[in-house]
C-alpha cells in the first residue's frame, strides 16, 4: 500500500511579538468583545523580515538534517502565500537558492488566500503518490506576513484596522513531504473540498485588504460544515464526534474556530452545549496553542494548527487528526491523517515553543514607530538599504543563525545570515 505525508515539519514565528491585550487597550477597542478572539500574542514582521526570511528560517533545520543524497531528492519546491512581492517571479526560487537545493527541481508558487498552504501540501502529496519519481521529496513552504503601515505623521487610530490588527500575524510553516511520513501520514482519498465565489475578503491593492467580516464568518461556517459532509460522503463511517481524536482548524482567530466547531457538533453530532464546550477543550484547544501566540498567518495557519496539535496533544497511541482549511474567496478542504508518539518526538526536536519564548516583546512606542518604518519595504520597492539597528534586540533574539533581509537592489532582494 502506498503511503505519503509529512516527513519533517518546522515553524518559524519571527523575532518580535506584541501582547494583543495591551494593543487592544492602546487602541481603545471594546475589550469584552476582544476576549472572544481568544488571542494572546501576535508576531510582528520587522522591515528586515519578509516572507522569504520566514520561510527559509522555518525550512533550514529540515534541510540541515538531511544527508546530501536525501537533499538531492527534493524535486519540487512550492511557495504558498498571499504576501508575495512580485507578480511574476516565485519566491520558491529564493528558497531554492538560499537552501542550496538541486537544480533538477520544479519551482513555483500558489496563491489562494488562506487555503494556499493546504493546496500546496495536497499537490505535493499527489506528486509523491503518483510515483513519477520514486523516492523523491517535496518541500512545501507556507509563509505570510501581515504588515500594517502608516505614512510619516499619520495616526494609526484613524485607520480602519479594527480587530484585524490584533489578529494579523506573520510566520511560516515548512514541510518535507515524502513516502516516509514520520510526522503525519495522510488518509489517502479522505478529502472533502468545497468552494464558490464570495467577496468576503480580498486584496484589491498590494499592501491592503478589504472585505466584510460578517460575510467571512458565515462563509467559513458554511465551508466547514459542507467540506466535512463531503468528506463524510467519501468516508461513510466518519463520525465528527468520534472518528478524530483531535481537530486542527485554520485559525483567523480562536473565536471563529469555536463557532465552527460548535456548529458542527450541534448539526453532525446532536451534542448538548456542555458536551460541546468540553469537546472543544479536549480536541480543539491543543491546535490553538501556537495560533494564539502568532496570529493569523493566512496560508500557513491551518498547518500551524496541525503542528500545534501534534506538539500539544497526547499521542501515547496513534491518533487520527481531522484538519480543516479555509481560504477567502473561497475554497476549503477537510482532510485527515494519523500521528504517533514518534511523530511528536520528531517534532519536539525543533523546539518550536522555545522559539516562541525567545521572541522580543515590542513596546507600544516601538510598535508605533514600526508602522511608519515598514513603508521602507512596501510593494514595488526598487532600491533600499535597511537599517539594521532598528530593534537591535530582534537580531539576537533566536540565539542562532537567522536570515534577515539586507536590502533591495534593482528589485532583487539581498539577504544575510546573522548569528
TrEMBL record:
UniProt xrefs under InterPro entries: HMG_CoA_synt_C_dom, HMG_CoA_synth_N, Thiolase-like
Which ranges carry the Hydroxymethylglutaryl-coenzyme A synthase N-terminal domain?
4-178
Hydroxymethylglutaryl-coenzyme A synthase C-terminal domain segment(s):
278-416
Top-level taxon in the UniProt lineage: Bacteria
Q: Which residues cross the membrane?
A: none
Name of one Pfam family that matches = HMG_CoA_synt_N
Q: Does the keyword Transmembrane apply?
A: no
Q: Which Gene Ontology molecular function entries are recorded, alphabetically? A: hydroxymethylglutaryl-CoA synthase activity
**Gene Ontology BP terms:** acetyl-CoA metabolic process
Q: Which family does it belong to?
A: Belongs to the thiolase-like superfamily. HMG-CoA synthase family.
Name of the protein this chain belongs to: Hydroxymethylglutaryl-CoA synthase family protein
Query: Which species is the source of this protein?
Result: Fulvivirga marina
Amino acid at each position: 500500500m502506498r503511503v505519503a505525508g509529512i516527513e519533517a515539519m518546522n515553524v518559524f514565528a519571527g523575532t518580535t511579538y506584541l501582547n494583543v491585550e495591551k494593543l487592544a487597550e492602546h487602541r481603545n477597542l471594546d475589550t469584552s468583545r476582544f476576549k472572544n478572539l481568544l488571542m494572546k500574542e501576535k508576531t510582528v514582521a520587522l522591515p528586515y523580515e519578509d516572507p522569504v526570511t520566514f520561510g527559509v528560517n522555518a525550512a533550514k533545520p529540515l534541510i540541515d538534517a538531511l544527508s546530501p543524497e536525501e537533499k538531492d531528492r527534493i524535486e519540487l519546491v512550492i511557495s504558498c502565500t498571499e504576501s508575495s512581492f512580485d507578480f511574476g517571479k516565485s519566491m520558491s526560487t529564493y528558497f531554492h537558492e538560499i537552501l542550496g537545493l538541486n537544480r533538477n527541481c520544479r519551482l513555483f508558487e500558489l496563491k489562494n488566500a488562506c487555503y494556499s498552504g493546504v493546496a500546496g501540501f495536497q499537490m505535493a502529496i499527489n506528486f509523491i503518490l503518483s510515483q513519477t519519481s520514486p523516492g523523491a521529496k517535496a518541500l512545501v513552504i507556507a509563509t505570510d506576513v501581515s504588515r500594517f503601515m502608516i505614512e510619516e505623521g499619520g495616526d494609526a487610530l484613524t485607520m480602519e484596522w479594527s480587530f484585524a490588527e490584533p489578529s494579523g500575524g506573520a510566520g511560516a510553516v515548512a514541510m518535507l513531504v515524502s513516502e516516509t511520513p514520520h510526522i503525519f501520514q495522510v488518509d489517502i482519498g479522505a478529502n472533502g473540498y468545497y468552494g464558490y465565489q464570495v467577496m468576503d475578503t480580498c486584496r484589491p491593492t498590494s499592501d491592503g485588504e478589504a472585505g466584510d467580516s460578517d460575510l467571512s464568518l458565515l462563509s467559513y461556517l458554511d465551508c466547514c460544515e459542507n467540506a466535512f459532509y463531503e468528506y463524510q460522503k467519501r468516508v461513510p463511517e466518519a463520525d465528527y464526534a468520534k472518528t478524530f481524536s483531535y481537530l486542527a482548524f485554520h485559525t483567523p482567530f480562536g473565536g471563529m474556530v469555536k463557532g465552527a466547531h460548535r456548529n458542527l457538533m450541534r448539526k453532525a453530532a446532536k451534542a448538548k452545549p456542555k458536551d460541546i464546550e468540553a469537546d472543544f477543550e479536549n480536541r480543539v484547544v491543543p491546535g490553538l496553542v501556537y495560533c494564539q501566540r502568532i496570529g493569523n498567518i493566512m496560508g500557513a495557519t491551518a498547518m500551524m494548527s496541525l503542528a500545534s496539535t501534534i506538539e500539544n496533544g497526547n499521542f501515547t497511541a496513534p491518533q487520527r487528526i481531522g484538519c480543516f482549511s479555509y481560504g477567502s474567496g473561497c475554497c476549503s478542504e477537510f482532510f485527515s491523517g494519523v500521528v504517533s508518539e514518534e511523530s511528536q518526538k520528531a517534532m519536539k526536536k525543533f523546539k518550536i515553543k522555545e522559539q516562541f519564548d525567545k521572541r522580543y516583546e515590542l513596546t507600544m512606542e516601538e510598535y508605533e514607530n514600526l508602522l511608519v518604518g515598514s513603508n521602507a519595504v512596501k510593494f514595488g520597492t526598487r532600491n533600499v538599504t535597511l537599517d539594521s539597528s532598528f530593534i537591535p534586540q530582534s537580531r539576537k533574539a533566536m540565539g542562532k543563525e537567522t536570515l534577515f533581509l539586507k536590502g533591495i537592489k534593482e528589485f532583487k532582494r539581498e539577504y544575510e545570515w546573522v548569528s
